[in-house]
Specification:
Structural class of chain B: mainly alpha
Low-confidence stretches of chain A: none
Mean pLDDT of chain B: 86
Largest interface: A-B, 29 and 20 residues
Strand content of chain A: 25-35%
Distance between the termini of chain A: 35 Å
Order of helices and strands of chain B: HHHHHHEEEHHHHEHHHHHHH
Largest sheet of chain A: 6 strands, mixed
Mean pLDDT of chain A: 90
Number of helices of chain B: 17
Structural class of chain A: alpha/beta
Order of helices and strands of chain A: EEEHEEHEHHHEHEHEEHH
Number of strands of chain A: 10
Distance between the termini of chain B: 22 Å
Strand order of the largest sheet of chain B: 1-4
Shape of chain B: globular
Oligomer: heterodimer
Shape of chain A: globular
Chain lengths: 239, 349
Amino acid sequence: MAILEIKNVSKFFGGLAANADVSFSVEEGSIMGLIGPNGAGKTTLFNCITGYYPPSKGEVIFDGRRMNGLDPDKVCMLGMVRTWQKVRPLAKLSVVDNVMVGALAHTSSLKVARAMAMEQLMVVRLEHRANFLAGGLPIGERKKLEVARALATQPKLLLLDEVMGGLNPAESEELIQLILDIKERGLTQMVIEHDMKAIMRISDRIVVLNSGEKLTEGTPQEVVSNPDVISAYLGESHA
Amino acid sequence: MSKTILKAVVGLIVLALLLVIPKYVESPYALHMMILLFLSVSQGQSWNILGGFAGQHSVGHAAYFGVGAYTTMMLMHTWQIAPWFGVWAGMVLVVLVALVIGSICFRLRGPYFVLASIAVAEILRLSAINLTTLTNGAEGILATELPAFKVAGVVVTDFSTKVPFYYIGIFLALLTLGITYWVQHSKLGYFFQAIREDQDAAHSLGISISLYKNIALVISAVLTSLAGAFYGIYVGFVDPPTVLGLDVSVQIMLICIIGGMGTLWGPVLGSLVLVPLSEALRSNLVTDLLVRGGVVSADSRVGIFLKENLSHAHVLLYGILVVLVILFMPEGLMGFIKKMASRRKQEAV
């Protein structure tokens, strides 16, 4: 069953089509990879899905509900949460407090929220940093914190915007494991990623965007062998 | 655990001392200083909830201070309604004002919000000057005769001394301190701080930005209006510049900036610095000390110059102090103390 359906979504900034007529759907429990060259409109699509931009055209259907025009906070409460390509820790709060903010979406008790937050910190293996200030974490741990905080809101669909960007190979490997662990628990994920090896390993299906349009969609194998994808990434002569 | 008990004991001792001060101190001037201190603490704490915790740096809190003061005074002056009833009307009115201001200004972020908050306070100040039939315009409202406060027919106080004001002041300071503590230790505090740290991130985590900004504003505005009403009845006089002027807004903000924004004790520390300082500057204590200490003689040109000008210079010195604090203690006194403490801890390790 599709948990998220994107139907003919377009987003225009003036005359520029950041997304043009993009359609695909994400199956429950799967990992959908979203790739494309820089400026292909991946993050814009995330923003359209999560309520930061209203789509200029088209529909976003999540869990049977039309999401167009809902604010980001409503989107989160309905079970769809995103992380940020440029991490956004709540710098002056401790790591556990950051995650608690997420947990407080569904509870008013600080005690319950704290317990939930610690649980998510264990999931991302950041529990030893619980009382550190979030602003003082190195990039790899900030990325994990983003994931823990998003998980704490108890989502049905997790949207990860380049969680491996800027990480070293060991850190990337940890995050790949983390994403697979999260999948294991039955949570649906949509992942924007530049690291092709990583995206090939984790995705069940991949959508390729290029200049705002959907270029192709398929299993990782289908996508990498598609000549259009190769030319989009490497130029015509390599196709 | 023992640390919390220690804190509680120290707190109770300080509170007990504060409560018995009027029994032993009769100097009206000393009581006046303490009342100003309590007023400052409650103003600072009120602003702190919106500015310190939710990160919305309002430079228009004079609006709420003035509405609270004016409503209470107008009701007392025109309709002889006792201030302890009038203050409720002031609070209701301030909630309405805050929601109107919030719905307009919270569309804006950062410096734009600051400018809008100044503009709104200025609109109210100009209205107070020009709506002469309602507010008596620039002349202000003088209402020094307070009715006696009675409970079940027994006169509790007739406000003939400063002592009842002292206790009202303590009550206000404790109330705002208590509410700040409650906010800090609840979901609200977490959401306010999340909005302060990163509005977009907070939004993505299910926090309705406009709802929680408005909650912060309403709490902050209502408490500020209480302080305003208290100021009005204590001084017995309000006019547009003293309760609605831009310097009132700045003064309220400074308490937190100097003490430490977004901390429970910041506004208390800020008040402990600012109230004595501004009083010392105003009454030209500095010149007195210099003269008495023999640094300058009272008859020399420097001495005369200082005597004539230093009391007027308190705003200037105030400004210099703020610049110094911002340069060297960007987190305020509270942040500075915390930094020192953690540095000492690190050195010990």
